[in-house]
UniProtKB/TrEMBL annotation:
Organism taxonomic ancestry: Eukaryota, Sar, Alveolata, Ciliophora, Intramacronucleata
Start and end residues of each stretch annotated as Disordered: 105-154
Highest taxon of source: Eukaryota
Protein source organism: Euplotes crassus
Biased composition (Basic and acidic residues): 105-132, 140-154
Protein name per its UniProtKB record: Uncharacterized protein
Length: 390
């Protein structure tokens, strides 16, 4: 029949946006011409459908991208709003956002100072312009251990709460009136809701007390307790009891705060329900060496070797040492308490200042017989020390 096409262009397919071109030849029969025309029409129709699908896909992708950008912008705005409203009392809030801990502290301090002035003005107006030093209700972020001089020292003294302020805060959270003096005992039991609220309401360092107790620290409130110890622990007190009745965990979490707190305690420190490794135990001895008493109650103390205490306890005036229930069956070191106790006494026997001041050992419920304890004391030069096992 000869060449039915005068020219032919290869079909590269719809994706390349190229049309199939078929030239007509006068020599084509009607049927062949009709078939070729139908093929051209079908190829064109397929190409148009593919282009339409591609356009819809591109539009959908662009629409989804724009929607994602809007959602991201809304999320950023929501986070920004949340940061503004976020209560600065929570130490855990520092973990969120782009600000560093130092920047967050600085931001919180700035807000607190401005709010402090406004609230003190309101308090003074309520009392007929007799400002007795009452402070604020919300918890601040204040830099601990800051050395004040001149005007800064005056400002630091003004930030110490008086007893009227302490009574006011307690009345707000408990609904009951209570008078406090330097001879008062103050208990914070964090298993009680309004006691926990007290941590969030106090805004000034607590005034002098006789005895201060913190009990039942929940595992999810350790951060709040750390902030309280750093900023609002009483200015001065005789006895401090820490962590009574709580689940036992490592004391290392609070060592930085205890270093500061121990400086404010005059006579006795009682540490309850902690796992205490040798390094932290030695640090606590050093911190409390000038107190009258240091007592550990229901703690697990690890002294697998004889610690070096000769230099650490120079100048010690510690009169009473307690290890109550530190060897009972609930502790992991029950079987090794005797050897750990021997290591401790061996180390203390080399400390001349401690030997001169040490008068009483309080060690009930340790799981070791009293005559064994007495022999260990005698072997290390502590025969005259009074032994209390009940």
């Amino acid at each position: 029949m000869g060449n039915p096409l005068s020219c032919f262009c290869k079909n590269y397919g719809p994706d390349n946006n190229e049309m199939v071109c078929v030239a007509k030849n006068k020599s084509l029969q009607d049927e062949e011409y009709q078939n070729a025309y139908l093929k051209i029409d079908k190829a064109g129709s397929n190409l148009r459908d593919q282009r339409m699908q591609n356009a819809q896909t591109h539009h959908k992708i662009a629409s989804n991208a724009k929607e994602r950008e809007q959602r991201i912008l809304q999320a950023k705005q929501a986070i920004g709003t949340m940061r503004e409203r976020l209560n600065p009392r929570r130490e855990d809030a520092w973990k969120f956002g782009s600000m560093s801990i130092e920047e967050t502290k600085s931001d919180f301090n700035g807000r607190w100072k401005e709010e402090s002035k406004q609230e003190e003005t309101k308090q003074a107006e309520r009392r007929g312009k007799k400002d007795v030093g009452n402070g604020l209700r919300n918890k601040p972020r204040q830099e601990p251990n800051k050395v004040h001089t001149g005007d800064q020292d005056k400002q630091a003294k003004e930030n110490i709460a008086d007893y009227d302020y302490l009574s006011m805060i307690c009345k707000e959270v408990t609904g009951q009136s209570q008078k406090y003096t330097s001879k008062s005992k103050f208990v914070i039991d964090l298993s009680v809701g309004y006691h926990l609220e007290f941590l969030f309401q106090i805004r000034k360092r607590m005034p002098d007390l006789d005895k201060f107790i913190i009990k039942n620290i929940p595992s999810d409130r350790k951060g709040d307790v750390k902030v309280f110890l750093q900023n609002y622990f009483p200015q001065s007190l005789n006895t401090f009891c820490f962590n009574i009745g709580a689940d036992k965990y490592a004391i290392g979490l609070y060592m930085n705060e205890l270093k500061m707190c121990c400086q404010r305690v005059l006579k006795e420190i009682r540490i309850h329900d902690f796992d205490i490794r040798q390094k932290n135990f030695v640090s606590l001895l050093s911190l409390c060496k000038t107190k009258d008493s240091l007592i550990f109650i229901n703690c697990t103390i690890y002294l697998s070797s004889v610690p070096k205490l000769e230099k650490i306890l120079i100048g010690s005036t510690l009169r009473k040492l307690g290890l109550a229930r530190c060897g009972c069956s609930t502790n992991e070191n029950r079987g090794t308490f005797r050897s750990h106790f021997q290591n401790l006494m061996s180390a203390l026997s080399k400390c001349n200042d401690f030997k001169r001041s040490f008068e009483e050992l309080y060690i009930p419920g340790c799981g070791v017989k009293s005559d064994v304890i007495s022999q260990i004391l005698k072997d290390n030069g502590f025969a005259t020390v009074e032994l209390c096992i009940s």
